[in-house]
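Bench notes, afternoon.
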Amino acid sequence: MTLFGISTAEALAKLLLVHPLELEEVTFNRGKLYRSHRIRKENGKLRILHVPQGQLKLLQQKINRHILATVEPLKCAHGGVKGRSVITNAQRHVGKPLVFSVDVKDFSPSVSPQTVRAIFEALGFMGEAANLLVQATTWDGQLPQGAPTSSGIANLAMTRVDVRLEGLAARHGFDYTRYVDDLTFSGPERLKRFRGLIQRIVEEEGFGVNPDKILTMHAGMRQVVTKIVVNTKLNLAREDRNQIRQVALQNANMPRRTRTSNDSLRGQLSWLSSVNPVLGTKFRHLARVL
């Protein structure tokens, strides 16, 4: 896994195409370069995003481009990977007799600065260079949700979990994918026998499983993977489709000037089209949005 052999601030700065003084200044003042936002999750709890600004954001983007993006992602990883998405994640599980999903509990807080340092050391960064990379990519003792580097580091932090679960899936004939902290398995009914082992593997590698987000979905019920229905084909849930259709009908009856500037509807139609192109096109015409 070792790709680099860098231990000094000067060598790291050269790799990232920044001046050494800028690198040290940005990491030292990083606390002033985060903006915190609180968003409410579906369960009503608050999620705190730490979004980098200015030079810190640019530095993290360079770490992404020149370091994290050089690591070949595992086939099972779909979050934060170029060319992959919630859609490619869900596609692997279409039309399966059984879909089983688990969620890693408090994922970002679980990835400590010590874990991040171990990741960069495995890539070949030591000493001062490793210290600077840890400072540039962690905040408040964890991966900051909202930072450009967090998805890539999270994928690397899950490498041992992914390798073990991919091996288990290959040996026993089922599929495994992961979208950030959302782990999904699908296959024949005998997949049920492995649910306890799957959770144990996650826990053995230092992560917790959220007991409220363990789902076993048979073919006779709605099977949902990263908010996409996968029973027979990719689709949105019926209530979501109905909601978009209702908004589309309302939009069609609005004055043309208002209709063409409805960015919210355009976003919903774009999301529907990416999951179900035929229905997306139909609703787009219904809404009179070109």
